[in-house]
UniProtKB/TrEMBL annotation:
Keywords: Membrane, Transmembrane, Transmembrane helix
Origin organism lineage: Bacteria, Pseudomonadati, Pseudomonadota, Gammaproteobacteria, Oceanospirillales
Protein name: Uncharacterized protein
Transmembrane segments: 28-50, 70-93
Length: 122
């Protein structure tokens, strides 16, 4: 009997792996909704919140430090949000035609390609 292999990562990049895992098991419309929800939550919600926090500190003497830190996080949320949207769209198309039975290698390839394309879109 094989045990589950689950690694817990405490970074935002592991969200893409989680979205791949969930979207690959859902029907096409569920995969699309998961991708859209993750995109809106991460890129629009978290990224917009961080941009608002940065804009509120514009006159502060610590603004350059905050800009460097928040700017990096804002770019990260854009990358992860775009990758989640790509994963959702891919599995929506794939699951529509082939059903929700993706193999482990297919999930891995989809996650890697989504991360690469997510960086290119940004």
């Amino acid at each position: 009997m094989m045990g589950r292999r689950y690694r817990r990562n405490n970074n935002l990049g592991s969200v893409v792996t989680d979205v791949v895992r969930v979207a690959s098991r859902l029907p096409w419309w569920g995969a699309l909704l998961v991708g859209l929800f993750a995109y809106f939550l991460i890129y629009i919600g978290l990224g917009g919140y961080l941009e608002g926090q940065l804009a509120a500190q514009e006159g502060s003497q610590f603004y350059p430090i905050l800009e460097a830190r928040y700017g990096r996080l804002i770019r990260l949320t854009a990358w992860v949000g775009n990758a989640c949207l790509i994963v959702g769209a891919f599995f929506a198309i794939r699951n529509h035609f082939f059903g929700a039975n993706a193999q482990r290698t297919e999930k891995g390839i989809a996650g890697i390609v989504a991360k690469i394309l997510g960086r290119r879109i940004d």
